[in-house]
Design a protein that fits this description.
This protein is α+β, with helices and mostly antiparallel strands. It is about 25% helix and about 35% strand. The chain contains four helices and eleven strands; from the N terminus they run αβαββαβββαβββββ. Strands 3-1-9-10-11 form a five-stranded antiparallel sheet, covered by helices on one side. The chain is globular.
Length: about 200
């Protein structure tokens, strides 16, 4: 991890590209794998690797390295005051198109607790994380693939529509360039009150 973080610092002097996200459980991984099996022979689609699967809580953007300790401190304070574990339900596969192509999500039902956590975290770190954006209609989702414009995607029923994603905390991640493309590395874990925080 240190090598990849160092490479990131060399390519982006003085900054780290950071975001907050929930770790996903094995049931989400199996669903992502099921989608991949349905579309494995289609050109123009790129599947996210297992280690990169996550449910984004807040995107920070490029944050000055000198601000990292303050970012963690402010997040911990907000976490201790406001955190309640969201439970994500009613998953489905969905497509979100853009001008270059699009993305495939495991999309969950809109979640008031999740939205409130997103807002409270944004308020806590906005003065440090100047690239953070607060969305009014935040949809909980896991990006499992990206595709080029014109590619036809086969979407089927979600393998387990009754699946629940239960969370106990979230993590601060760094987006880094590795030998095999973009990778996400855990920087700090904000655990529930029964567990200790962990430096990645």
């Amino acid at each position: 991890m240190e090598t990849d973080l160092q490479n990131n610092k060399e390519n982006n002097p003085g900054t780290l590209r950071l975001f907050f996200a929930f770790i996903i459980d094995p049931s989400c991984v199996l669903a992502a794998k099921a989608f991949q099996n349905l579309n494995s022979n289609i050109p123009g689609i790129k599947f996210n690797r297992r280690a990169n699967l996550h449910l984004t809580l807040l995107y920070c953007g490029a944050v000055n390295n000198n601000c990292l300790i303050d970012l963690i401190r402010l997040t911990r304070e907000s976490f201790q005051k406001n955190y309640s574990s969201p439970v994500f339900i009613h998953p489905k596969f969905s497509i979100k198109e853009n001008r270059k192509g699009g993305m495939v999500w495991i999309e969950f039902e809109k979640n008031k607790m999740f939205s409130e956590l997103n807002r409270s975290l944004y308020e806590a770190v906005k003065d440090i994380s100047i690239h953070s954006k607060l969305k009014d209609e935040l949809i909980p989702h896991i990006t499992i693939a990206r595709f080029k414009k014109g590619v036809q995607i086969a979407l089927h029923e979600f393998p387990d529509p009754n699946m629940k994603l239960i969370t106990s905390g979230f993590e601060l991640w760094a987006s880094c360039s590795g030998k095999n493309g973009l990778i996400y590395l855990s920087v700090f874990k904000f655990n529930s009150s029964k567990s200790k925080d962990v430096l990645g």
